[in-house]
Amino acid sequence: MNCSLIFEKIYRKEKIVYSIVTPVYNQENIIEKNLKSYIEKTVDFFEIIIILDSCSDNTKQNILHFISNYKTTHDNFVQIKILESPEPLFETKCDNIGFKLAEGDYLLEIQADMEMTELGYNIHLSKPFNILTNVIAVSGRCGHNLFRTGGIGKLGRNVEKEISTLSVDKNMFYTFETCNRGPLLLHKEKVIKLGYLDEINYFLDNSDHDLMARAYLQEGYICGYVPIDFDAPLKNGSTRKSKDKKNMEKLKELKNKIDGTYINKYKNDWTNIDAKQYILPL
């Protein structure tokens, strides 16, 4: 795997609490705005790890221009690392690369099409970890079941809606059988114990749901949803972007290496988990 570090800047020496990991594929029009929002809306000491996934537009140039000229006034922004792969890796492998480089206690996966709009969103997402010891992941997007209907939050097209328009309580942790990427806060030690994301069978999607299934079946870990606001227009999502020839050929190659059962392989061992609600501390 030829993924190399192309930029690194350390702003200060502090113990990192949150490691923001963002895979990026062709987001030249929005990446500077979104990256700026991570810096300005994240509270407590954090680092940013960006993985450029075989971009063919001006994403790389725009990120490097922004970060090289950005004069941070945020004392909690500890460092940034930018890595680049000339060959397509896809989201799951990019996440794992970032997770393994992460120095924080928490892994905070934010997809490149997301603009964080709520100051201290990460502190709010971390509250369930302070009241329950067996939490592996908290999504700021949504929570839902694996093999049956039922869910809550910014499901599907609701990702574009403000949480004030949804039937959710901002000060509640909603546990469900699985939860979605972006923004997704993960307990790093628990992720390491489970062997990270399965980048072979879930190289493009569903690796978050596979992780949650393994977490519960193997360790009894739970996950869920905490409502926060962010902007993520569906038109900007990487999965909706047309792929270049290199990407399409790599997708075909990877699909030929998997059995295609996906999370359905867990059906025989799965026992439905009752959704619960926990009041969060203010």
Task: Give a description of the structure.
The protein has 282 residues and is α/β, with parallel strands linked by helices. The chain has one domain (4-279): Alpha-Beta Complex (Spore Coat Polysaccharide Biosynthesis Protein SpsA, Chain A), CATH 3.90.550.10. It has helices at 31-41, 59-69, 91-101, 121-131, 188-193, 207-219, 245-255, and strands at 4-10, 18-24, 46-53, 77-85, 106-109, 115-116, 135-139, 142-144, 151-153, 172-176, 178-179, 184-187, 222-225, 230-231, 276-279. The chain has a 10-stranded mixed sheet with strand order 1-4-3-2-5-12-7-13-10-15, sandwiched between helices. A 3-stranded antiparallel sheet has the order 9-8-11. The longest helix is centred in the C-terminal third of the chain and has 13 residues, at 207-219.
Q: Architecture, CATH level 2?
A: Alpha-Beta Complex
The CATH class:
Alpha Beta
Rg from alpha-carbon coordinates: 18 Å
Task: Determine the CATH topology.
Answer: Spore Coat Polysaccharide Biosynthesis Protein SpsA, Chain A
- Elements, N to C (H/E): EEHEHEHEEHEEEEEEHHEEHE
Task: Specify the number of helices.
Answer: 7
Shape: globular
Q: Work out the helicity level.
A: 25-40%
Distance between the termini: 44 Å
- Name the CATH superfamily classification: Spore Coat Polysaccharide Biosynthesis Protein SpsA, Chain A
Arithmetic mean pLDDT: 94
Record the strand order, biggest sheet.
1-4-3-2-5-12-7-13-10-15
Low-confidence stretches: none
> What class do helices, strands and sheet pairing give?
alpha/beta
